Amino acid sequence: MSHEGIAYKRILLKLSGEALLGSREFGIDPEIISRVAEELREIHGLGVEIAVVIGGGNIFRGVAGEKEGFNRARADYMGMLATLINALALQDNLERKGIPVRTMSALEVKEVAEPYIREKAISHLEKGRILILACGTGNPFFTTDTAAALRALELQAEVLMKATKVDGVYDRDPVKDPQAKKFETITFDEVISKNLKVMDGAAFSLARDHHLPILVFNIFRYGNIKRAILGEKVGTLIKN
After folding, report:
1. Based on CB atoms within 10 Å of each CB, which residue in 9, 13, 83, 97 is the most buried?
2. Residue 205 placed within a domain
């Protein structure tokens, strides 16, 4: 596999559950998940080592569950299991495209996924398998953003790629204000001083303290992941 001309050899992609909704109100849009799998297949072909942390908001969100009367810890565990459903759907799609893939889970569900063990996860990446990481950190009260930052650091990823509905970080909400200005690059300290919401505080602090760059980009524009891998300007890069 070739590594020439690529900006990152090992990445961690944070994929929200909401990104898999497509035009649906609930569940998984087969067209969207197939498109994401196709993009991953392309960059896998470039020799990039890929880990994916997947959310579950298209099925169940712990915070929303708490508002509806569920015990918060239990609601978070329900949300973690929702991420596992998404992980298995993505695994199935990738395997149908002929890509070697493993799903590892922070909760023990050995019938459907391997338990997450750092050394084994790194071994999968080194062997050219796409790694899908389900069930967040395995702990309630932590978001999948925090899981993404944690796993990126554990697996020594060169960048945390946060796939979102917008094409980067803006000084104001671009949906509400068409005059909002997009940043091509911005520092962690600037994000804090401007009070910009990029990801939750624990995740952001982890990335800042350990010098992990975060690339925020639009998942719905096909080819964005590949463009970023090839070093093109995509989204907003946050770094120290």
Report:
1. 83
2. yes
CA torsion through residues 169, 170, 175, 176, sign: positive
Strand, coil or helix: 118: helix
Q: Longest Cα pair distance anywhere in the chain, in angstroms? A: 53
Q: Return left, alpha or beta for 85; rule: phi > 0 is left, psi -120 to 50 is alpha, else beta.
A: alpha
**CA nearest to 17, candidates 72, 84, 69:** 84
Rg of the chain over Cα atoms, rounded to whole angstroms, equals: 17
Range of the domain at 14: 10-239
The pTM assigned to this predicted structure is 0.94
Other CB atoms within 10 Å distance of the CB of residue 108: 12
| β pairing state of 169-170 and 101-105 | unpaired
DSSP 159: E
Residue linked to tokens 């470039």? 46
Residue 148 lies in a domain: yes
